[in-house]
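--- STAGE predict ---
source: upstream dedup step, 1 unique chain passed
mode: sequence only
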Amino acid sequence: MSEIDIGGIENFHAPFQGKPQPCKEAPLILFVLAICAFAIGTTEFVIAGLLNVMATDLNVSIPTAGWVMTSYALGVTAGAPIITAFTIHMRRKYVLTSLLALFVLGNVISALAGTFSLLIVGRVLAALCHGSFFGISAVIASHIVEPSKRSMAVALMFSGLTLANVLGVPLGTLMGEHWGWHAPFYAISAIGIIGLIGIVFFIPYQLALPPTHLSKEFSALMRPDIGLAFLVTALGFGGLFASFSYIAPLLINVTQFTQSEVAYLLILFGVGLMIGNFLGGKATDKSLKGTLYASLFFLALTLFILVWTAEAKWPAVITLFILGIIGFGTVPPLQMQVVHRAKTAPTLSSSTNVAAFNLGISLSVYLGGLGISLGWGYTSPSWIGSILTFTALLIAIFLNNKYKE
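--- STAGE serialize ---
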């Protein structure tokens, strides 16, 4: 692809030189980034629907199989700040191309894996790209459109992640049931290659982004209020995944749904996620603090209610749908509280908060699996998640009272 001049910037030689300007290719760029987000989101969350099939095929327990999701989350947690820091002064196109290539490699290894250990290796490699990709893409999306359209541009880029839960995870679950758990990883690899081609051909070589100073970004992240905000993200969102990571075993063993029915229930859950993400964004624009408190409180309450409604099919279905709405309704306020507090560290704070989301996931998956291992039953991850989310609410209240923005 020939070099594209963005906003009339000519003779552009440094990746962060010049004032960000709207770009006429913005819709195409956002579409490419959304495709990549769809692939990345699917590979992260599809394990929830494949856990039973994978555990049986690899001859491991359900809690042990949960490490397939935990390893991914840990890979994101480690990779997001480190890769972002080392690549922060490189051209964004080069970084995104390298990250997607690594993502495809990791998924190909996962697809070919014949052992549990090799599968973990593939998952970690794929995960290393996750945090930096979303951190960089969010900055790109918000600076290739008019200032008044920045929130919508970021939402469009993240729509691929939301769509992954509506279509990618259920379809991956069905593929895993009919053709084995390897099949979804082949499909994800193919989508990743499409996204990689899109980046190579359609992402401009010249991108005018805001000046970035690594020392200033790191110093901003060292503040105690930013650290507490990351902790709220980790525990608040982690509470959702303590339950969701083991949702297939719960629905199959407790609620008595079949594996095929679980796939369709995940579609319903995904629809709830889309609704929650939209409503959460709208509410956050009106009241960040109020939305943060309300979403965390009702998420903790819904997780606790699921412990009891999981015993019957229709109550479980209704609670699952509500859980999707409230669960992803927490994402906008959790993200925006960090953005508002770390205004001088846009790239690193965004990537590190993605790491915080996934650190919470890894912790919650471990604790949820521990509850099952200790004989507390398949409903235990839900009440464990409820405790995690309620703890996040208490920390959020302390944070906003102690450190005023």
